[in-house]
Amino acid sequence: MSTASLRNPWSKPRFLVGITWIYILWSLLPVLLAIRFAFNSGRSRTSLQGWSTKWFFGDNSFSVFGDPTLQDALTHSLVLAGLAMLIATPLGIMLAIGLQRWRGRGSGPANVIALLPLVTPELVFAVGLFLLFTTAMTTIGLGTTAQVIGHVTFSMSFVVVIVRGRLITIGPDVEEAAADLGAPPLAVIWRVLLPLLAPAVAASLLIVFALSIDDFVVSQYLASGADTTTVPMRIYAQARAAPTPALNALATLMLAFTLIALGLAYGVFKFFSRGEKGGSAIEQIASIDSGGGR
Amino acid sequence: MSEGDIRLEGLVKRYGDVLAVDGIDLHVPPGEFFTMLGPSGCGKTTTLRMIAGFERPDEGEILLDGSDMSSTPPHKRRVNTVFQNYALFTHKTVAENVGFGLRYQKISKDETKRRVDAVMEMVQISELGERRTSELSGGQQQRVALARALVLEAPVLLLDEPLGALDARLRIDLQVELKRIQEQLEVTFIYVTHDQDEALTMSDRVAVMKGGRIEQCDVPQKLYEEPNTAFVANFLGSANLLSVEARAAGAGCDVILGNFTLKSESRPEQAGVGTAMIRPEYVKLEPHGSEGENRLPGMVEEVVYMGFHQDVRVRLANGDLIRADVPNDGDSPEYEQGNAVSVHLRAANLRVLDDYPDEAVDEAAESDDIAASTAE
Questions:
Q1: Half-sphere exposure of B265 (CA within 13 A, CB side)
Q2: Are A159 and A152 spatial neighbours (Cβ–Cβ below 8 Å)?
């Protein structure tokens, strides 16, 4: 069939289409399996034993809503993600605008350094923060505050990338036009720049949320005890001790949160950038998503 | 109405080592349609941006109605700009775009609405008020950008190649309309373009710019008929440039071209070796052997059919090649390669330029492509 497409360039690229579908199925398979076992009516995580939602809502102390440790983990993950989202986004926007306007000496290195967390191995980053909070900045110490700072730090780079992309699309002209029409500097930001940035802001908020709720390494290193355990940490710990399908149920809930966040990001982006030409919305979300899988 | 008097004094702008604007002195009286014309990089846009307040001059003053506004921020200057790429607010409707600036002036809601409606009617976009700007065509977007700037009734409007992104036919329509609006409102227009047709058809006065300086500034007709330099001659229309020696004679001068002596009614700044210029449409071809002043024998080397005229290239007896535009009006003879002709360069149209000869020859070589492209 591949030789056919080589001989006939107008034929459908069946071979490539085939590979694409195999890849999609292969990447979804483990996720689907994990979700399937969340609904297992038995205790096993390896053999299928009928359908049930008892690992979510069951009254036994092993279900997500029955086991207080799993519930605490879920609450803590959501609090961390919410805080990271609300702190990293405004900071990232300011950083992006600053980097965009900064011309001249030092702006080159600053640009690179601001994006460095995107490529720094997360483990190196987490160990670094751990040492910082346990030796130099002991007033903060380990715990929720340290976790929030860690999440904000690494997710801000994503905000910078998203917002700068949008700033480049907007261009400097609209700001000049607004000033030219009599808008004072603050009004230029409030009435022109931020409304035009809205899609990027919405995307940033939800991407930071998704990154934070997914995170394991930074959360783990900066945790101080049981009350700072996140869902990924809980799953990891329990998977080695006494795993039940409740872990799958918890993971399924996490997946749902992440997908809802991404879906909202996409929808909001589409809404704010409606009527604009080009597929920038899709491209931007796609680029974020691939970054999120680090 | 006497508002809208713009005066630039010794304006200089540097970017690092590059002199973008190199000492511009200019006076634009109220209500004038003034054009800055030049190739890219000549400093015309930088000058406009300094008047708007987006760039700060390194030296010099910008006076609006007599008071210096070099240190006034853009949002407090009584000048408005129409941008080349429109710079519309895509998150607002057309009417919101037009009314944007009025929010910062102390005006009632009714007055705001009245002025927005009036200006939208003037630029013929009344029926587009509720549309989003992304749904508009290029020409419509340009009208919105114009309305948005005009509604504030500032005494000076700055236009940065506003028609640059539009197709040819639309450009001509909008040229006529811009001129009509400018005359109706009696606002000072400072217009930046690299398009000689735009400059010639709309402007009261044109400044031809080059290398951050004003090369020549005058009414369009004078610029075209009496350019001072080869650069101006080539940038506006096409020109034949001849290396000559000029000698003062009477009110004009004698032009020595090889073994021939021609008369010119122009008077260069200094006599000596220089450059003479004549427009192709003023070069008259006469039958071989015609006698009289300012006539030279020549031989047709090439004829290019251009539609409404023929571009006839004649090799003069002294070796120079000269272009003549012969109208296709049914009366003029059709020339062929090898025809012997007599070339008449009228004294009134033969002009000795102020350039030093080296400069002029360099520029003639440089601007060959410009002349060629305008001829096509």
A1: 8
A2: no
Map tokens 């279900």 to a residue: A63
CA B247/CA B227 separation, integer angstroms: 19
Which of A170, A176, A180 to mutate to test binding with chain B, by most B CBs within 10 Å of its CB? A180
- Residue type, position B124, single letter: Q
Query: How far apart are alpha carbons A263 and B187 in whole angstroms?
Result: 52
How confident is the prediction for chain A on average, in pLDDT? 82
Residue A72 has pLDDT above 60, yes or no: yes
Distance from CA of A28 to the nearest CA of B (A): 38
Locate the chain B residue with the closest alpha carbon to A173.
B87
Residue A39 has pLDDT above 70, yes or no: yes
Q: CA end-to-end span of chain A, whole Å?
A: 36
Taking CB atoms and an 8 Å cutoff, what residues of chain B touch A177? 81, 83, 87-89, 148
> Is residue B63 within 8 Å of residue B76, measured between CB atoms?
no
CB of A217 less than 8 A from some CB of B = no
**pLDDT mean over A196-209:** 89
CB-based contacts of A42: which residues, under 8 Å, 6+ apart? A49, A50, A245
Nearest to A182 among B54, B83, B104 (CB): B104
pTM over 0.90? The answer is no
Q: Of the candidates B85, B103, B135, which has its C-beta nearest A275's C-beta?
A: B135
Is A120 inside any structural domain? Answer: yes
CATH of the domain at A78: 1.10.3720.10
Q: Do A182 and B75 touch (CB under 8 A)?
A: yes
Q: Which of residues 79-138 of B touch A (CB under 8 A)?
A: 79-81, 83, 85, 87-91, 100-101, 103-105, 132, 134-135
Chain A residues near residue B80 by CB distance under 8 angstroms: 180-181
Least confident span in B106-110, B142-146, B358-362: B358-362
- Domain count of chain A? 1
Give the separation between CA B148 and CA B162, rounded to whole angstroms. 13
Mutate to test the interface with A, among B91, B105, B119, B136 (most CBs of A within 10 A): B91
pLDDT band at B292 (very low <50, low <70, confident <90, very high): confident
A-B contacts (CB, under 8 Å): 76
Do B119 and B150 form a contact (C-beta atoms < 8 A)? yes
For residue B67, give the 3-state DSSP assignment.
strand
Which string of DSSP letters, residue by residue, matches B71-100? TS-GGGSSEEEE-TT----TTSBHHHHHHG
With respect to residue A9, please indicate whether it lies within any of the assigned structural domains: no
| AA letter at B276 | A
| Cα A52 versus chain centre, distance | 30
Q: Which domains are delineated in chain B?
A: 6-222 (3.40.50.300), 229-375 (2.40.50.140)
| Residue A281 lies inside a defined structural domain of this protein | yes
Domain that includes residue A86, residue range: 60-292
Chain A CA closest to residue B157 = A180
Helix %, strand %, coil % of chain A (to 5): 75, 0, 25
